[in-house]
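Task: sequence design from structure.
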């Protein structure tokens, strides 16, 4: 088994205490979930104020994290992340991350552990499921960030399975028509890449009034993905759809964005 070599003195990975490209979501209550989703029944939750990245983390941003010593800086990694890293000292898949994309595209082929460590390195964390859903669709119970309709534009964007244009790759993280953005101005909250969230996936118990999901058990080790990807039908890209994934899963359709507690 390959062993990770931890630096005695942490390399200078940038730590942004105040995010420069994030949206403030105010404290408040909303109804998350939908009767359309069997594992996400409607539930009123109350959230504290938080900030969330306007865009998904890009290939360039993640590459800078690695170049600055992110994989050898112990403090960025959780205990489970460090255990995973012992067998993957260079990460899950650099070749898959690049895959011909330029650096402005969202980073993909990152495990939950890598996403969690990157967020820690910039003074952030992964959003909870409830935070992600609130940021994606606001408080008016809409199905998609842009509303309830599956217009041809939305259908093309979400999956490329309709019309004459087929999207076969991600879109740059900072490029999206305003009409498809979330009510709070976030980009690509549906249909670009699946996004890791902080919560564990449970099919029948998905949290209390704070929106936090139950802790992992031997039967529920999975984390929840949100948002769908360029490979999915629109129904998978709705604000309420949840998808389970093991934290060590690697796929060209999975990325992430960061969240911050609001002081």
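Answer:
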């Amino acid at each position: 088994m390959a062993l990770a070599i931890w630096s005695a003195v942490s390399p200078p990975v940038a730590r942004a205490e105040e995010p420069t490209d994030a949206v403030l979501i105010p404290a408040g209550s909303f109804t998350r979930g939908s009767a359309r989703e069997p594992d996400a029944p409607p539930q009123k939750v109350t959230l504290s104020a938080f900030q969330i990245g306007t865009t998904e983390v890009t290939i360039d941003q993640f590459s800078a994290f690695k170049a600055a010593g992110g994989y050898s800086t112990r403090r960025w990694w959780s205990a489970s992340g460090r255990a995973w890293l012992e067998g993957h000292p260079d990460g899950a898949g650099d070749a898959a991350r690049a895959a011909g994309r330029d650096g402005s595209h969202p980073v993909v082929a990152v495990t939950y552990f890598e996403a969690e460590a990157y967020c820690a390195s910039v003074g952030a964390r992964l959003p909870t499921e409830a935070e992600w859903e609130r940021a994606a669709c606001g408080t008016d119970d809409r199905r998609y960030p842009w509303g309830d309709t599956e217009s041809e534009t939305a259908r093309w964007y979400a999956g490329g399975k309709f019309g004459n244009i087929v999207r076969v790759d991600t879109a740059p993280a900072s490029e999206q028509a305003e009409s498809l953005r979330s009510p709070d101005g976030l980009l690509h909250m549906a249909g670009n890449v699946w996004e890791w969230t902080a919560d564990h996936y449970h099919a029948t118990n998905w949290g209390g009034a704070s929106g936090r999901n139950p802790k992992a058990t031997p039967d529920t080790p999975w984390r929840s993905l949100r948002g769908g990807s360029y490979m999915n039908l629109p129904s998978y890209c709705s604000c309420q759809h949840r998808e389970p994934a093991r934290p060590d899963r690697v796929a060209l359709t999975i990325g992430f964005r960061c969240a911050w507690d609001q002081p």
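The beta strands are 22-25, 28-32, 43-47, 50-53, 194-200, 223-226, 243-245, 254-255, 259-261.
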